[in-house]
Amino acid sequence: MNHSIEDSMLFSGISRDEITSLLTCLTATPKHFQKGEIILSEGTPTDRIGIVQSGMAVISCCDVWGNHNILGNALPGDLFAEAYACIPNEPLQISVTAAEHTTVLFINVKKLLCPCTKACAFHAKLIQNLLTICAEKNLQLARRMLHISPKSIRSRLLSYFSACVKKTGNPSFVIPYNRQQLADYLGVDRSAMSHELSKMQHDGLIRYEKNHFTVMDSCF
């Protein structure tokens, strides 16, 4: 069994043997995607929850004018599209794309929400875990709203970096986005953001190399 699946929050509190049994019960199906390949398309409904086994998936949306916004990402063990899968025939308002070579395990949500005839004792735990994950996703969207509420690019960057420091407990951290993805996530122009990052480093607020950042003590 892939360790990312075993360590996924969806299977928290469920033993390895029970997970193996559950995956069979849920008819879980793995699928491989190349970098840049669409995993789920905006505008189409889905009845499947995706769990990243390896690689990374990027969740984004695009308005009618073609403006692209990144809402988040899914790393190994993370779920995506669980809210849409729980609502029958609800068209996706997001797209999910492979940021690199990515393997996804798909689970039919009906089999997850409706315990099988065997009435597995650990199936109830699975549903409880799914509810917890949905609540956490709502909090993540709320955090993004906090990051994009400031008007200036610097303020948005500082808000995001502050959250990274609080999450890791370390002033040095690695972000999961490249420059374009970070700009999309914060809703700003990439060139303007890159210029602002350079200014922030010159001003002694941060240090960075690629996607590794260090926030200086004087920053907050």
List the helices and strands and how they pair.
Elements: H1 3-6, H2 16-25, E1 29-33, E2 38-40, E3 48-54, E4 57-62, E5 68-74, E6 79-80, H3 82-85, E7 95-98, E8 102-108, H4 109-113, H5 123-148, H6 153-168, E9 172-174, H7 179-186, H8 190-202, E10 206-209, E11 212-215
Antiparallel strand pairs: 1-8, 2-7, 3-6, 3-8, 4-5, 4-7, 9-11, 10-11
Elements, N to C (H/E): HHEEEEEEHEEHHHEHHEE
For the largest beta-sheet, the strand count, sense and barrel status come to: 4 strands, antiparallel
Mean pLDDT: 90
Helix content: 25-40%
**Cα gyration radius (Å):** 19 Å
What class would the helix/strand composition place it in? Answer: alpha+beta
Name some characteristics of this structure.
4-stranded antiparallel sheet, globular, single chain, 220 residues, alpha+beta
Can you describe what's shown?
With 220 residues, the chain is α+β, with helices and mostly antiparallel strands. It has helices at 3-6, 16-25, 82-85, 109-113, 123-148, 153-168, 179-186, 190-202; strands at 29-33, 38-40, 48-54, 57-62, 68-74, 79-80, 95-98, 102-108, 172-174, 206-209, 212-215. Strand 4 and strand 5 form a beta hairpin. The longest helix has 26 residues, at 123-148.
Summarize the structure.
With 220 residues, the chain is of the alpha+beta class.
